[in-house]
Amino acid sequence: MSKTKYINKIGIEIPAYIEGIGALQPYSGSFTKLKKGIMEEPSIPPPNKSILPHKSKLKKSIKRAIQACNPHDGMTISFHHHLRGGDAVLMQVMEVIAAMGIKDITLASSSLTSAHDGIVPMIMDETITGIFSSGVRGELGLTISHGHLKKPAVIHSHGGRVRGVHTGRINIDIAVIAASASDEEGNATGSHGPSAFGSLGYACIDARYAKNVIVVTDNLVEYPCIPPSIPQNFVDFVVKVDSIGDPKKIATGTTRITKSPLDLRIAKLASEVITKSNYFKDGISFQVGAGGASLAVAKFIRTAMKEKQIKGSFLLGGITSYGVDMLNEGLFRAIFDVQSFDAAVSSSILNNPNHVEIPAGYYANPYNSGCVINKLDVVVLGALEIDTNFNVNVITGSEGDIRGASGGHSDTAAGAHMTVVVCPSFRGRIPIIKKKINNVVTPGETIDVVVTERGICINPLRKDLLQQFAQSNLQIRTIEDLEEEVRGICGETKPVEYEDRIVAVVEYRDGTIIDVIKQIKE
Amino acid sequence: MSKTKYINKIGIEIPAYIEGIGALQPYSGSFTKLKKGIMEEPSIPPPNKSILPHKSKLKKSIKRAIQACNPHDGMTISFHHHLRGGDAVLMQVMEVIAAMGIKDITLASSSLTSAHDGIVPMIMDETITGIFSSGVRGELGLTISHGHLKKPAVIHSHGGRVRGVHTGRINIDIAVIAASASDEEGNATGSHGPSAFGSLGYACIDARYAKNVIVVTDNLVEYPCIPPSIPQNFVDFVVKVDSIGDPKKIATGTTRITKSPLDLRIAKLASEVITKSNYFKDGISFQVGAGGASLAVAKFIRTAMKEKQIKGSFLLGGITSYGVDMLNEGLFRAIFDVQSFDAAVSSSILNNPNHVEIPAGYYANPYNSGCVINKLDVVVLGALEIDTNFNVNVITGSEGDIRGASGGHSDTAAGAHMTVVVCPSFRGRIPIIKKKINNVVTPGETIDVVVTERGICINPLRKDLLQQFAQSNLQIRTIEDLEEEVRGICGETKPVEYEDRIVAVVEYRDGTIIDVIKQIKE
Q1: SS3 B156
Q2: Contact at 8 Å (CB) between A478 and A457?
Q3: Do A232 and B166 touch (CB under 8 A)?
Q4: Beta strands in A351-417 (DSSP E)
């Protein structure tokens, strides 16, 4: 008899099969599968197409373009989220599709933001029954957490999404690619035009694998559109719309440097950990995640690099204007940009050859000959919760509701020489450092340092770091000790009450399941 | 009973099966298959790999790198030919492999030049038993023509090669990519370094599909190497050698503008055909092939564009310094460069964002959502022979020996609005315009105009062109009339005598067989 469930490497029960998703594999360690040198799950061939010379790809409306793509019940449609809170393309397209009466759609967006709350009614009426995304927020998160999505959502990392498309787990029927400039053949970019938003990194894999690819732009330019971030040979149809959205809404919330004194203090501490580590030297490569204190670390590192006259190798990841300034100041030789966290970054992608737009596979796919995160020295990441095994939750809030994003968190944590998580030890009397957290996205074995306002914890697996910092004046303490102190301040927390039903699975970057998210009890 | 042979659309007998190659399909018309909107032959999935973070890809020697790639009898090894007559990588690698005693190898180089005559002994001792290439010249051509290669060679077009890799007909075990600069992760380029040679366009598909990818460079640079023309996530090993070759030998022979008065006269006539056509207007896109008169046409078009103040869209193909000058003069908005015909072009690729390095699939693969040749207005090509049905031979000489290259000939002829072939009507008493030619590479239905020193022939299929030029002072005549005149001058030619054995097949870009090349009688 085959197994009906597993206990994965971090002790979480994973069903062997979930209706609507299929067979699951339990998480078995960050590098267990990568060590094998191959991907066990076979990949699928990209689709084969042909077109006659000089045939037009232009369609008069989104509806016409969708109609040309053999739309059908049960199809999978993909989007990219570079326009973040300013995106107007996903909703425009989904409204057209909903009006066409198509049902049972799987929505595969590289992430979902507050701009996509409008799909909630489409979940309620089963227009959308499945979701693949690296993040879910707002109304949409609550809708899923309360069990309204028919099939459990799959939360993936940015690198894992590329793997999922290669293997056909995400088998895209129609990819919709928003572009701030495109020509009539679909050479498309986000690097110029009135709605410029920067990198198109997440959309590259969709363009290669989707059975139908539609470029949607508000800026149809003379042929050829340069740079062809998405090359014409992958694009089937091109549609001009009035607006793809508001790029000013990209740089909000999690993509701005905090003004909170607490976060700034934590960021300062984290920068000291970095500058006192052996990695802080010429050739250092560096990434900071979005949100709270993590972005602020860049500010302090910038100053420290100038003081010590250190010249780094590359900056990676979601790229802010801060990163571009550091490139222009000569602090780093290059930027690899899979996602621009500020529309202002676009002109740097366009004009600076050392600001390199990269596909998500190049960024973080664990199953290729070596993505860029494998070259990272230091990454600074945020957290919603951390347990005493250093496991990190970035997907569910303290009430157990889905309200975050996996993003590149587990990818970069696995790749970097030193992964530093920055967060307060508690927020508003709710502990962040806990014995048991609601969900796990990134396994503790890939987290090296946790920096809070109440001290710094080093993962005991990293004896080398403990030794390095032993001589420093850094306030190092065990995470058990910190957890106890936090519990003393906040008191025991009442665990969230869940139903039995699984509403989402958290996929690790290698395709195994690291956690399941359950329906919240009303 | 299944068929043992076919007669293809241009009346040539094609066997249904050839030992060592497999089942063959007869050529059925240039667009018959493309009209279907899909590729019938299924494509294969790209290989799946994985690697641990921070693991070195550097190998101390070519031998060590080959040893790491599971070398074995019967394997397929691929190369690109951007260094043309100056290439030193193919021979260095093949000598190592031959010394290792590996036999029955299929050599899949995007083309082969005089720099590769050294593989003749490897053919004789069956180290190499199969060849895929777009061109074969010199000693190597004679060796194949005289029946010494065990399996028939497959001559493909540049676009067709990409299709062949996608379908697995060319199933690459080891791809070797020569780079003028690479970092230790294999981010590789031909655009800078002492041996800079320009575009790496042909190697892109090999990098994506080969089970093992080795970058060979004489210029290992600090990480990251920018631009990553070949991105690190496809590269398994990196080797530093003393020299990848001599880029000064790229711009020789077929890549220089002719000084022959006859060729210049033909080129002038061809430029008149173009400037008097309806395609000569703002937005014109243009490609000239290598060799003889065709490259010289660019010279006259340049002057005409300046005089008429015409601003073109893009220049395509093998790119010379002439093309770069035209870009810099503002005569074209962009260059798409799959192969640089002059090492001096490299700095333009590196520094001019409108000089775009493109993969061969983007250039000419018939099986995608639309390659760039599909947007071409005018292409000017050469010919070794042309028959009165406008079929063109660019692969075998008047003695029937293999000495040419398919290259992008049939690709661009299929894509362009107007395909102009330039050649003398005879050379040294040997007719070029003939009733029956030795071999066909490009079908006559894709050739629109033939320009010789004795007049201009328009394909009767192009009634629109005949009408356009009716009012002009161009000396238009039928190709039958021209052939008769040439025959009057040169006399009847004795047909080449062949054995029955097929030594090579000429694959059309869609994978069907347009012709077979037979062994020459001694």
Answers
A1: coil
A2: yes
A3: no
A4: 355-357, 378-381, 385-387, 392-393
More confident residue, B428 or A285: A285
For residue B46, give both structure tokens: 């790209």
B104 burial via Cβ count (<10 Å: 0-12, 13-18, 19+): middle
Q: List, in order, residues 6 or more apart from B36 with CB less than 8 Å away.
A: A50
Asked if B424 and B450 count as a contact pair (C-beta separation under 8 A), the reply is no
Q: What is the pLDDT of residues B2-23, one digit of tens each?
A: 689 999 999 999 999 999 999 9
Q: Among A96, A45, A76, A69, which Cα is nearest to A154's?
A: A76
Checking phi first, is residue A424 left (phi over 0); if not, alpha (psi -120 to 50) or beta? Answer: beta
**With a cut of 0.90, is the ipTM above it?**
yes
- Give the neighbor-by-neighbor strand order of the sheet with B392-393: B392-393, B385-387, B433-434
Judged by CB atoms closer than 8 Å, whether chains meet at A224 and B314 is answered as yes
pTM: 0.97
Six token digits for residue A245 = 């959205």
Q: What is the pLDDT of residues B161-177, one digit of tens each?
A: 999 999 999 999 999 99
Q: Which of B44, B369, B374 sits opposite A53 (nearest CB)?
A: B374
- Return d(Cα A228, Cα B231) in angstroms, integer: 16
DSSP collapsed to 3 states, B401-442: CECCECCCHHHHHHHCCEEEEECCCEECCEECEECCCCCCCE
Q: Is B23 helix (H, G, I), strand (E, B) or coil?
A: strand
Two structure tokens written together for B229: 């023309």
Q: Where are the alpha helices (DSSP H) in A252-310?
A: 261-275, 292-308
Contact criterion met (CB < 8 Å) for B226 and A185: no
Sign of CA pseudo-dihedral A316, A319, A325, A328? positive
User: Is the CB of residue A476 less than 8 Å from the CB of residue A457?
Assistant: yes
* Residues A320, A341: Cα–Cα separation, whole Å: 5
- From B166's Cα to the closest Cα of chain A, the distance in A is 9
Interaxial angle between packed helices A292-308 and A261-275, expressed in degrees from 0 to 180 and rounded to the nearest 10:
50
Sign of CA dihedral A188, A194, A196, A197: negative
CA gap A122, A104 in Å, rounded: 10
Rounded CA gap, B276 and B473, in Å? Answer: 10
Whether residues B38 and A48 touch (CB distance < 8 A) is answered with yes
DSSP β-ladder status, A58-59 and A76-79? unpaired
Question: Which of the residues B169, B316, B363, B368 would you substitute to probe the A interface, choosing the one with the greatest number of A C-beta atoms within 10 Å?
Answer: B368
The Cα of B221 is separated from the nearest Cα of chain A by a number of Å equal to 12
Closest Cβ–Cβ partner in B48, B232, B417 for A54:
B417
| B84 Ramachandran zone, left/alpha/beta (phi>0; psi -120 to 50) | left
CB A83 within 8 A of CB A176: no
Q: Which helix (H) or strand (E) holds B483?
A: helix B479-490
Nearest by CB to B53, from A55, A334, A415: name it: A415
Distances (CA, A) of A500 to A493, A516, B192, B384: 21, 11, 60, 76
CA distance B377 to B420: 11
> Both tokens of residue B256?
């220089």
Across the A:B interface, residue pairs with CB atoms under 8 Å apart total 202
Confidence of residue B193 (pLDDT cuts 50, 70, 90): very high
Bridge-based pairing state of the strands A513-520 and A498-507: antiparallel
Which residues on chain A are in Cβ contact (under 8 Å) with B50? 33-39, 366-368
CA distance B134 to chain A (A): 22
Q: What is the pLDDT of residues A100-159, one digit of tens each?
A: 999 999 999 999 999 999 999 999 999 999 999 999 999 999 999 999 999 999 999 999
